[in-house]
Amino acid sequence: MTDRPYVIDQLISAKAIAARIEELARAIESEFAGTDKLVVVGLLRGSFIFIADLVRELGLPVEVDFIEASSYGDAMESSREVRILKDLRSGIGGRDVLLVEDIVDTGHTLAKVTEYLGTRGPRRLRTIALLDKPSRREVAFAADWIGFSIPDAFVVGYGIDFAQRDRNLPHIGTVRFL
Ligand code: IMP
Questions:
Q1: Is residue 52 in some structural domain?
Q2: What is residue 135's DSSP assignment?
């Protein structure tokens, strides 16, 4: 599957992503206004570019941490079984936490990871995903903020991969097999 030739058609430009991140940052700032420190947790690996751009737009005191959950591997379909592969370094009990994800697809990953973080007793836990594919949802999960709602297509770029490739594309595109 992964060695089939494919092309990438642009879906969301780098400029549109940057503009949307500015809007999202304002909404997050107003939600967490007055916080002593916001723990921004990136879900590895797909969120690494999004979190980097988002925290630079946030006018709040922030701390950055990462968590990794099992994902697709080299496949294009979700495994549905979510395991925590790398845990947080920070304690989040009593703290303000923002979980940052690249895509909500079936919803299994965010549902599981927010449930897990919730057991650590954060004061406020909110979630943001850059992309949402609502038509693919298998478990009811709604992020607090979404960058863009997209159709059911496999996307890459801006941190998001296809079998570890194409994360370094500055825009988001859809994979089209030739
Ligand atoms: P979910 O558990 O099905 O919601 O899947 C979420 C994870 O699947 C995301 O964090 C991505 O890592 C991965 N994923 C979902 N859709 C895509 C895609 O179109 N391209 C690359 N990875 C995807």
A1: yes
A2: G
The catalytically annotated residue of 53, 96, 102, 105 is: 105
Q: How far does the centroid of ligand 1 lie from the alpha carbon of residue 104, in Å? A: 6
If we measure between CA atoms, which residue out of 148, 149, 172 comes closest to residue 162? 172
157 domain residue, yes or no = no
Residue 112: CB within 6 Å of ligand 1? no
CATH number at residue 139: 3.40.50.2020
d(CA 91, CA 82) in angstroms, rounded, equals 22
Tell me the average pLDDT across 19-27.
Answer: 98
The H or E element that residue 18 is part of is: helix 14-31
Number of domains in the chain: 1
> 33 lies in which domain range?
13-152
**pLDDT score of 120 more than 80:** yes
| pLDDT number for residue 126 | 98
Question: What does the block give as tokens for 5?
Answer: 């030739």
Determine the Cα–Cα distance for residues 105 and 86; give it in Å rounded to an integer: 21
| Helices assigned H by DSSP within the chain | 14-31, 48-57, 108-118
Domain-located, residue 135: yes
**Token pair recorded at residue 145:** 């903020």
Atom number, ligand 1, closest to the C-alpha of residue 107:
4
